[in-house]
Design brief:
Distance between the termini: 42 Å
Structural class: alpha/beta
Helix content: 40-55%
Radius of gyration: 19 Å
Strand content: 15-25%
Largest sheet: 5 strands, mixed
Length: 348
């Protein structure tokens, strides 16, 4: 992450216009077929069901996923996880809409937007239960009042990625006008720290393990979004209703695996650190360990896969305020907690 990132090029290459995303969603909703969504899944030699799984970006907010894979939890439940990083929240949900992925984890607002525009989308669980973003800087002192963001250049992923949304909401709630009182500089997801270290911004809104890596280079955390926002469905498990209808056993196995992995993540921090080191081998081990310590301290990974009403309400309040969603789909129509309830009951 030492490369200098061009904000304009990054924004042009990865930022997906929300209206274009909605148009794509509606078109796919009208035209998909069951074969394009589920197809003929190949089985491994061990008889496992192959699951095409898309993560928005590879980061330690998703440590529950990685713990589940390294601990063999998904395999124990009959699943062969084929995980790929999509490059952002819109891209990961687009993979589900287009049929190249069975499940996606990312900003669950994508499913809400799709539903509000006549498309599909169901959220069957939560993977990140708090905003897993930190304000990181080499030049600033800790910020306790959001009004202190006035006059700063802030680097985030492009809109509508979640760290852009939380940054914009923070500024506007503080009475600051974006582009006038403070500037948001969008860059490729995952390169926020590099842009800040290169001098393109005063502060980066980033996630682990990038935050711990920045601290190792002399930067420090100056603002904590997890406590500022509180309970928050930062990352949800998104799936199409047709997938639920055609293969509820697969959905149940996946949600049960996430519930078990979430519990193990908190119960065995040493194992979580071991897994994190394997997932991010290019970073010094002590940096990864520090990142996991911060993730667990701030309760960022979901402690349970169940999506709670306050987590969803805080997400929707922010997205409705920003104009990214209308909030017209009721909680019980877009959140299907039935799989999580069965998972919790089975693991008691």
């Amino acid at each position: 992450m030492s490369e200098t990132v061009s904000a304009s090029n990054a924004s042009a290459s990865l930022s997906i216009d929300r209206r274009r995303f909605l148009a794509t969603s509606a078109a796919l909703a009208a035209g998909w077929g069951a074969s394009s969504l589920l197809g003929a899944r190949s089985a491994t030699a061990a008889g496992l069901k192959t699951v095409r799984f898309s993560e928005a970006v590879h980061n330690l907010g998703y440590i529950n996923l990685y713990v589940g894979m390294h601990a063999g939890i998904f395999k124990k439940n009959g699943l062969d996880m084929q995980v790929s990083a999509a490059g952002g929240d819109t891209q990961t949900f687009a993979a589900v809409l287009g049929g190249s992925a069975d499940f996606a984890i990312g900003d669950a607002t994508m499913a809400q937007i799709s539903r509000e525009n006549g498309g599909p989308g169901v959220v069957v669980g939560t993977v990140v239960q708090r905003a897993h973003y930190f304000g990181v800087s080499k030049t600033l002192e800790p910020i306790t009042d959001p009004k202190a963001f006035k006059g700063l250049k802030i680097v985030t992923s492009p809109e509508p990625n979640t760290n852009y949304s939380v940054a914009k909401r923070l500024l506007e709630k503080a009475g600051l006008k974006v582009g006038v009182d403070a500037t948001i500089v969008p860059v490729n997801p995952g390169t926020e720290i590099a842009a800040m270290l290169a001098g393109q911004a005063d502060i980066a809104i980033a996630y682990q393990p990038s935050v711990a890596a920045a601290e190792a280079q002399g930067a420090k955390v100056v603002f904590d979004f997890s406590n500022y926002i509180g309970p928050f469905c930062n990352t949800g498990i998104m799936v199409l209703p047709t997938t639920i209808q055609k293969d509820p056993e697969m959905v149940q196995a996946l949600v049960t695996s996430f519930e078990e992995a979430s519990r193990k993540t908190y119960a065995d921090p040493a194992f979580s650190k071991e897994v994190a080191r394997k997932e991010f081998p290019d970073l010094p081990g002590e940096v990864v360990d520090k990142a996991i310590d911060a993730e667990l301290k701030y309760l960022i990974p979901a402690q349970s896969v169940m999506t709670k009403t306050d987590q969803w309400a805080n997400l929707m309040e922010m997205q409705v305020y920003l104009g990214n969603a209308k909030g017209t789909v009721p909680f019980d129509q877009i959140i299907d907690n039935s799989f999580a309830e069965k998972a919790i009951a089975s693991l008691k």
